[in-house]
Fold this protein.
Amino acid sequence: MNRHLIRPFNWQVLVGLTLAVLLALPALAQDEDGRRRGKRGRRARSQPTTQASQPTTTSTTTSTSTSTSTTSAESEEEERPAYLAVINGRVHTITDGTLIGATILCKDGVIEAIGGGVRVPDEAEVIDAAGFDVYPGLVACGAGGIHGGGDKRDTTNVFGLNMEIALAGGITTTLSGNDAAKLTYGTTDGLLVRKNVFASLRYSANRPLERARLREDLEKVRDYLRAVQRYTLIKERDEDAEEPDKSEIKGKLDEYLKLLKGERVAIASANEVGDIRALVGLAEQFGFELVIRGATEAWSIAEEPGRAKVSAIVTPRNSTSPDERLNRPSGASIENAAILARHGVPVAVLPASTSITLWGLAGRDLLHLNMEAAFAVRGGMRNDEALRTITIDAARIMRIDDRVGSLEVGKDADLVICDGDILSYMTQVHHTIVNGRVAYAKADSSLYRHIRPAGGPIETDFDDQWPRSLEWSAEDLATTDPAARKKAKEAEKKADEGKEAEKEAAAE
Amino acid sequence: MNARNALLGLLLAGLSAAAVADEPAGMAFRVAKVVSMDRSETVHNDAIVLVQGGRITQIGKPGEVTIPEGFTRHEHPEAWLVPGLIDCHNHTAGTLSDLNDMIYQTNPGLNTRAAIEPENDNIKEARTGGVTSVLLIPGSGTNMSGFGTISKTGGKTPDEVIVRSPGSLKIAQSGNPEWYFGGNSRRFMNWNTRQTLLKAKAYHEAWEAFEQGETTVEPAHNPIFEDFRGLFRKEYPASVHTQAYQVLLTTVDMLSLQLGIWTVLDHCTFDAWKVGPIVAASDCWTINGPRQYQFDRTAARMIGNASGWWKNGVRKLGINTDAPVVPQRELSYQATMACWYGWQPYPALKGVTSIPAEALGVYDRVGSIEAGKDADFGIWTGNPLDPRSACLKTIVDGKVVYDAAKSIRRF
């Protein structure tokens, strides 16, 4: 891209530009880095260490001075890795139990070490999470309005309100469109995790023609694959063997080719038993991996997706009514997630609305992803199972579990620090860390800062905006007669005047 | 002849014996915790609750209470027994299509009693969330849409389910009714609503004067205003759809202070919590919902409505769902969300049990676990505000109307 833009210039200009960029880069990086550290450091100083209500952030970095003596010194400064350590917290690793008071050391956005006795480098940014719970960043298998469309690095507003709110819900990775993307607030670095996660299929009884076409296409691709297989077997012996024609396998069919080769996972929406069953059958027949979105009635035939190793993305609080005309169980059940998990179906949980709502109806949007997992517990899951539906299992369904979804050495440093069990309704997220960088800090954001600032069930702390323009006292209001109200005001005024006169007299 | 009489006698005796056997003797619930929500806010730990004839008869420790012979035992030694949840703002206990007769800008004289539909799907769903009483009120398409009905969620006929009719008068201040005639302003609507109420008050006062012998001229009978007599006698409240803070002020001023009406402020959303001190100084009840927070764009912060009211001194504070806006079964979750946004769990639980009962004036029958009150309660696996807790059983009038163990668990 850059080369293309620069092509009209001669090579000297190109070299000059490149040099300039190379020289400018470390300076920019250092500036950004230094500013970040400096801010943290200042905040740490302003916070007394006795205040245990917030996870205190301290930085031992002392070299934030703007020394620009030599180029070599600058490049050394640049190469120094960025360390972040979260210490003293209750660390819920998801895949390897809970560690009390363990240290998580992150280096350049990746978890370097977890455990007791981890040495924290002097220059590390340190978050003291004593009394707090530390979880991996939550993963949502579906989100709208957080990232942009197309290439997310170009289109995402990384200072967007929706992103900040989702981070306040502890979410660090979402399936946005068909890409797994991170909520890298304030930067586009490390935003994309995986492009084109799923191959989307539509296979509903309501659209029989579409069904027939999909089967036809899949058969075509399967025949091609078989021909390729046959060709590879016989080409040694038979010199006349013709290589199968791939010219027709393009576009949608190429996508299906990847699906049948196991390079892609299919995703399809299905809620009724008939549709779920048909999809499971299709996946078994053609041998591809499938994720069913919705899966409202899957609880009533859970052994079928279980047997076919199909995954499901469900909303436990789905309220689809049963169809009384049917001679079988139908409609939604709060036990859906638990029943599916019991039958070996990997389950991810999503709220009914996968975007952020600002108009007042609470507890139904992406911010409350953890509450939806709590509803899975209501339906019979254990706490730890429900936690997996919004962390490692959600990551596995998107095939990004090598990077996110649990706290393990070598995985991305995506962490949530909160003041209690993340499945509890009284818990607030205090820090959300994405790629080893603090993307959300409750105390620094005006959004939820006032809600239980010290943790625990104490009163909200925000400015009282009353009264604005009306200056009635309660006594005034008790008197509904305007004349009486006026009289009372006058009497009050007189009394005030009297007091002032007294004061004046006293002064004299 | 004698033999025939004797046979008849035997037959009758047999019938009466059968009748006695059909009547369940009563029920005994052994639970870990009873959150009674009585006036002294008692919490009984490890308790037995006895139910007989549709009422609660005794609450006590296992050693102190003797379970009478023949009582059905419900053993839930790890569960909570919580008063049945009550919603002051419901549109689903009847047929939704029968609730918004937009005939005039104010429609006094209408009543939802005729729209009550026991055992409808929404009511069955409500039971799965431990909800036992709801106030079915008409919609907010006009400024005055008629009288609501307090109804239980268990019972087969309207007579069985109705707790009180009229339950309350539904008044809607602005925030919907202005669209009647395609756009009225608050100025006209307030004038019009006040005129209707003043006419009703005049009617009530004329009849009072006649009944107390102050005049001998019998006033003309007017069925439209008949139900308003109870309203002005403070036998039942007005449920008022209010939203932004100006509307709250008008409502407190006009209904509560000027006309002396027992006022229940419903919704109370957006920035309405800012008038907390004025509402706290009045006699009004505040029933917040379905919106649970206000996004203050200027200050870029999310203010929980309930926590805003609470912080501004309002203590007569409850929560509603406005079902079907939020499903009726999620009443407890509405209170959960009020807590998420800064309220406190115990007052929030009160806000869906005793507070709505008191706001509607039915606390003598429902809203707490006390001997002599209706046996309306839920058996929960834990704190009802925690979404992880499930409702195991719902009991209405001493009958198990929902049993999670015996049905497909929808919620």
Q: What stands out?
A: Chain B touches chain A through 60 residues (CB under 8 Å). Confidence is low (pLDDT under 50) at residues 7-21 of chain B. Chain B has two domains: 24-83+367-411, 85-366.
